[in-house]
Design brief:
Number of helices: 6
Number of strands: 2
CATH architecture of the largest domain: Orthogonal Bundle
Radius of gyration: 18 Å
Shape: elongated
CATH topology of the largest domain: Arc Repressor Mutant, subunit A
CATH superfamily of the largest domain: Winged helix-like DNA-binding domain superfamily/Winged helix DNA-binding domain
Low-confidence stretches: none
Structural class: mainly alpha
Distance between the termini: 34 Å
Length: 110
């Protein structure tokens, strides 16, 4: 999704090439993932000449929210507190990030 958002529209080949710069990935894996994202409604596709061009179906924040909710449902049985506790204990969070999380929680309580 990040590649499609950054390019605004992309073919499977475009996404494959972009991902390959970062790590080894099979073309068929990229194609499968893009098909799954299309089925879930995160991507739209249109035939342009001999290839399908994919575009985001919704703004980034909306899709990220849906993906996080799906992840929380699958991994934490829908309990967002489990995810938050896991993140709070993560040593990779900077002091600033932890403060930002605290402020967001405090704002919700007001």
């Amino acid at each position: 999704m990040k590649v499609v958002w950054s390019l605004e529209k992309a073919t499977v080949r475009d996404v494959y090439e972009a991902l390959r710069e970062q790590r080894r990935v099979a073309y068929t894996t990229v194609m499968t993932m893009m098909k799954i994202l299309e089925v879930k409604g995160h991507l739209k596709k249109a035939r342009v000449e001999r290839a399908y061009v994919y575009t985001p179906s919704h703004p980034r924040q909306q899709v990220v929210g849906a993906m996080v909710r799906d992840f929380v449902e699958r991994v934490f049985d829908g309990a967002t507190a489990g995810l938050l506790l896991h993140l709070a204990k993560d040593r990779r969070l900077s002091k600033e990030e932890r403060q930002r999380i605290r402020r967001a929680i405090d704002e919700m309580e007001d």
